[in-house]
Each structure stands twice: as structure tokens, then as C-alpha cells.
Design brief:
- The chain has about 375 residues and is of the alpha+beta class.
- The chain has a single domain, classed as 4-Layer Sandwich (Metallo-beta-lactamase, Chain A).
- It is built from nine helices and 19 strands.
- The strands form five sheets. A six-stranded mixed β-sheet has the order 1-5-6-8-9-10, with no helix packed on it.
- Pfam families: Lactamase_B.
- InterPro entries: MBL_superfamily_lactonases, Metallo-B-lactamas, RibonucZ/Hydroxyglut_hydro.
- Keywords: Hydrolase, Metal-binding, Zinc.
Length: about 375
């Protein structure tokens, strides 16, 4: 049975592109137990080790934005309520390391931080907010709908806050109001940031209050786009396979080259399929603390039904061949895409989507190898 055609995204036509660069934020999270966060449990998929992408968006006019900042280098100065020291002490995290703030990486690459118009938080979690205070006061902080009420003020003004006062002090904080948005791209309410169709902010609720994705037009002729997803999903197994992009009978390139150097039989992964379906994503995010939070706004999943809707939308974008999906923690892209100071524009000609699409299955190699 052939796959269903991907949904139409109805992206407005445009003739302006932005340049998008993927920056390794130098964060390395090691040892997050998968059984805390994913259903179903997969044998051998014990702990997650991953980094976090930050993305630089450059408009032809010279205006610049940064989407997500990874984690601040001095992570021990995060708000105490984040609980990082406790995570390390109780083994939820084995280790973490941050070598540089994104502001340092940009400065070392020749970017004048004063030219950065705004920093966009996909959401308020510590591994995305970075250290905004390392940017000049002229740089705006941009967040999604409801962010100001939920996350301002920060610590220490609010002792229970997971953001910091220093994130907001001395700068304009802009909340994107999608309530009156008359534009939808896919099923997401959209805001045309530059007003020329080159870069959109997308309201993507569920994981947290004020979660925003972004869509960048990177090519006009034979259109291509980069979809920045933050934590709409954390692992590609949450968005693949789908009815639009079923698990193939033969996967090329092979996600397990040490077992199958050539095309890899898709049937090798049949035991991982939810309900035995080649058309259903492998993993589903769960919240181990559900029902125990003092304040629901700090939950891992703020609204599970809305998150499921957002995941379905991301799946639809991902199934479109002219859209490159960048999940913040998708480290299967590492070694495939060009990183800063190079850019992602032209990704379709370089076949990065094809090369990376099923690479996430390598994370399940032990389940396949041991015959569980």
C-alpha cells in the first residue's frame, strides 16, 4: 500500500530567503535514562547522550536572530529550582559539560553581538535558554505566547522561578501574540517575522507554555525550508515513521553499517514498531513527574493533548521533501550537515535529508543485535 501524500503546508509564496547556520552549542548531556521519558521501553536504549543545536538566522538586510542558546557555560548558576545539582547527585544525569556560551562562539566567528537583533527561546528549559545576559541590551529576547506571565520575573525575585532575572534585565522582552494570527502554516499559527515570507515563528504548544518553532525559507527556485523544532520532539523516533513516510522495506543508507553495509532490511526493526505498524512513530514522550508538580507550568509536558497535536504537525512538515527538520537534540545530523560558519542553505542538493532520515534507528542497535 503506497504511503499517503504529505499534508499541504500552504506556505505563502516569497522571493526572499534567509541564511541559516547550525551551531553546536557545546552542551553535552550524558546519561538521561530513557525509561523515564519514553514509551515503550526499548532494550538496550538505556540512556541518551546528546548535544543541542542553536541556529543563526541572517536576513539579506543584515538583521540577525539566534534561535535557542543551548545551556549557559556556568550551568551551576542556573536558577536553583531547575535542580541540575540534584539531577547529577541522583543519577538522572550522569554528567554534563558546556565549553562555551553561544555568544562566545559567534564572537569568535566574527559576528558583532550588537548586530544580533533578537534571541528566540523555543521554550524556557535550561538547555535552551543559555545566558542571554552575554548579549548586549540592544538584543531583544523573543518568546512565545504566554511566556511573560508564566516565566517573568525570574530568580531571585521569584525564588521558585526556573528562569533568571538576568535573562530579562536591561533588554526588551517581546512576546509573539498568535491570538489574532490570520496566517496558518500547516496547522500552526504563524507570524511572519520580517514581513517578507523569509522567516516565520510557529506556535507549537504542548511541551511547555510559549513553545515556538520556526520555519526559514532557504531557497526560492526549487523551494526548500528549514524547520527549527526546539523540543516539539526530542528524538526522531517521536516523529518517524508515519503514514506519510512508512518504515521502508530497505533502508538506504543503512543506519547499521556495522551489520548491513548496504541497504538495511526495514524488517530488522519490526520488533520496535508500535502496534506492529510501519506507519506509527517508534517513541512517545512521557512525563515521569505527571501529577506531582507543584506548578504545572514547570512540567516536562505542560499539555499532553496539545503536544500530540504538535507532534502530528511536525510529522506532516517532516514528510514534505522540501523541509529539513532540525530537532534541538537530533545529534544524528552531526557529521552530515555543515555547521557554523557554513550554512544549511542548499541542503536539498546535498541530500542531507535522505542521508539523515533513518539514522536515528542506530540508537536501537542493541535491541536489534541481541534479538530481544
Amino acid at each position: 500500500m503506497p504511503p499517503k501524500p504529505p499534508p499541504k503546508l500552504n506556505i505563502p509564496p516569497g522571493t526572499t530567503t534567509v541564511t541559516v547556520s547550525a551551531i553546536d552549542s557545546t552542551l553535552w548531556l550524558s546519561g538521561v535514562p530513557t525509561e523515564y521519558f519514553y514509551d515503550p521501553p526499548i532494550p538496550g536504549f538505556g540512556r541518551v547522550r546528546t548535544g543541542c543545536w542553536s541556529l543563526l538566522i541572517e536576513h539579506p538586510s543584515g538583521r540577525k536572530l539566534v534561535y535557542d542558546l543551548g545551556m549557559r557555560k556556568d550551568w551551576w548558576n542556573c536558577a536553583p529550582a531547575v535542580g541540575i545539582k540534584e539531577y547529577l547527585a541522583n543519577g538522572t544525569l550522569e554528567s554534563l559539560d558546556v565549553k562555551k556560551n553561544v555568544s562566545e562562539i559567534l564572537s569568535e566567528g566574527g559576528v558583532d553581538l550588537g548586530s544580533v537583533e533578537g534571541v528566540i527561546w523555543s521554550h524556557f528549559h535550561f538547555d535552551h535558554t543559555g545566558d542571554v545576559s552575554t548579549f548586549p541590551g540592544s538584543t531583544k529576547l523573543i518568546m512565545g505566547e504566554g511566556g511573560k506571565e508564566a516565566f517573568m520575573p525570574g530568580y531571585p525575585t521569584d525564588p521558585e522561578a526556573q528562569t533568571l532575572d538576568s535573562d530579562f534585565e536591561g533588554r526588551e522582552v517581546v512576546e509573539v501574540d498568535f491570538r489574532n494570527a490570520d496566517l496558518k502554516i500547516g496547522g500552526f499559527r504563524a507570524y511572519d517575522y520580517f514581513g517578507d515570507g523569509s522567516f516565520y515563528l510557529l506556535d507549537s504548544p504542548g511541551h511547555t507554555i510559549a513553545h515556538v518553532n520556526a520555519l526559514a525559507r532557504t531557497k526560492v527556485d526549487a523551494p526548500e525550508y528549514v524547520h527549527m523544532c526546539g523540543d516539539s520532539a526530542h528524538h526522531c523516533g517521536e516523529i518517524r515513521p508515519t503514514m506519510y513516510m512508512p518504515l521502508p522495506e530497505n533502508i538506504d543508507p543503512s543506519p547499521l553499517p556495522h551489520i548491513h553495509a548496504g541497504p538495511c532490511p526495514g524488517g530488522l526493526f519490526s520488533k520496535l514498531l508500535r502496534n506492529g505498524s510501519r506507519e506509527d512513530h517508534v517513541l512517545e514522550l512521557i512525563d515521569p513527574g505527571a501529577g506531582t508538580y507543584k506548578k504545572q507550568k514547570y512540567a516536562l509536558i505542560y499539555d499532553n493533548e496539545k503536544l500530540k497535536e504538535t507532534v502530528r504537525e511536525v510529522e506532516g512538515f517532516d514528510a514534505n521533501e522540501d523541509v529539513l527538520t532540525v530537532l534541538a537534540h537530533d545529534w544524528t545530523l552531526k557529521g552530515i550537515i555543515d555547521e557554523w560558519p557554513k550554512h544549511l542553505n542548499g541542503w536539498s542538493e546535498k541530500k542531507w535529508k535522505k542521508e539523515s532520515r533513518w539514522k536515528f534507528l542506530e540508537d536501537f542497535r542493541h535491541a536489534v543485535a541481541d534479538g530481544s
